[in-house]
Amino acid sequence: MPSLRVLVADDERVSRTVVGAMLKKAGYEVSFVSDGDQAWRHLSGPNPPPIALLDWEMPGLAGPDVVQRLRAQEAQAPVYIILLTSRDSSADIVTGLRAGANDYVTKPANEDELVARVNVGARVVELQIALAERVRSLEEALANVKALQTLLPMCAYCKSIRNDQNYWEKVETYFHEHSGVSFSHSYCPTCYERFVKPQLDALEDLTRAQREQKGR
Amino acid sequence: MSPPVLDPTVLENLRQLTPPGAPDVLKEVLELFLEDVPGRIERLRAAWQGGNAVALQRAAHSLKGSAANIGATALLGVCRQLDELGRSGDLSSAAPLVTALDGEFARVQSEIKTLMT
Question: Pairing state of beta strands A51-55 and A161-162?
């Protein structure tokens, strides 16, 4: 598993360096920016880091403003956001979480706590990636089912189906290729009476006739 | 005995952040501190002289973060009071704190220089 990228946004170089060193030690790939506007550009741009630690008070956009803007964006790749704050009054924390942050850490950061909280973020991010992958494969399967539901040209006599390459395929082959369905061959009671029974009767008549001939 | 200028537990934790074979994180952080802090103290002083409570609070707030990160307990205390004062908007009692800030920074500075030699 490659190490996850984490963006640390803080104008204060000492804090930024300490937080960065804690995360690097825990195995994360860390990049730094020194104000809210740069953080916004990184997070709203292509291929944003999956986890970001934003200082509450920094030049340009403040941490909660960056979060709010980011959450207002549509089709945004989800970024797990932790606010770094020295404000530990519960009202401020509520403001930060309401703005759309996933979590907060009070400064100065305690190494064990910071790493534990970022690890929670990493688990959420990995889960989101796995879910997105699952949705993608389900959508693919659904697309195949839809392809089957469209109008199929079928021969009225032999029941062959014309495929996309303009080639007449047996029903069994066509469905097997398009949906992975396999067929086992049998006969229904009506066809048994109509086709199979006469053949069996004829065979029986033939055997009887042969036996009578030998006996003669 | 007066408490240490820099909390030894904090310093040790910083030293422990150094990856094997890499330059000492503690040294890097202390150097950054010496580079960054004087300018911000100047900004704080200018804000105080200009009666700008918002700018004073901003400067005090960021100094507070730096001081906390290296375990400069006494300096942190002064920054915290200045941060609150700036937030209140009333700078009339700021003068002794600004003087204390200079004194505490000088102590931290000489402590760091001792540590690094």
Answer: unpaired
pLDDT at A58: 84
CB atoms within 10 A of CB A74: 4
- Nearest by CB to residue B69, choosing from A24, A25, A108, is A108
State residue A87's pLDDT score: 65
Q: Are the beta carbons of A15 and B28 separated by less than 8 Å?
A: no
Instruction: Find chain B residues with C-beta within 8 A of A87's C-beta.
Output: none
Rounded to two decimals, the ipTM of the complex is 0.90
Measured between CB atoms, which of B29, B35, B61 is closest to A18? Answer: B29
Q: What distances in angstroms separate CA A105 from CA B35, B41, B97, one per listed residue?
A: 26, 26, 28
Q: What confidence category does residue A182 fall into, taking pLDDT thresholds of 50, 70 and 90?
A: confident
Class of B8-14+23-116 in CATH: mainly alpha
SS3 assignment, position B75: helix
Hey, are the CB atoms on A108 and B68 less than 8 Å from each other? Answer: yes
> Candidates 3.40.50.2300, 3.40.47.10, 3.20.20.10, 1.20.272.10; correct CATH number of A5-138?
3.40.50.2300
pLDDT per residue as tens digits for the range A184-212: 888 999 999 999 999 999 999 999 999 88
Residue type, A134: R
**Interface test mutation site (partner B, options A12, A14, A87, A88, max chain B beta carbons within 10 A):** A14
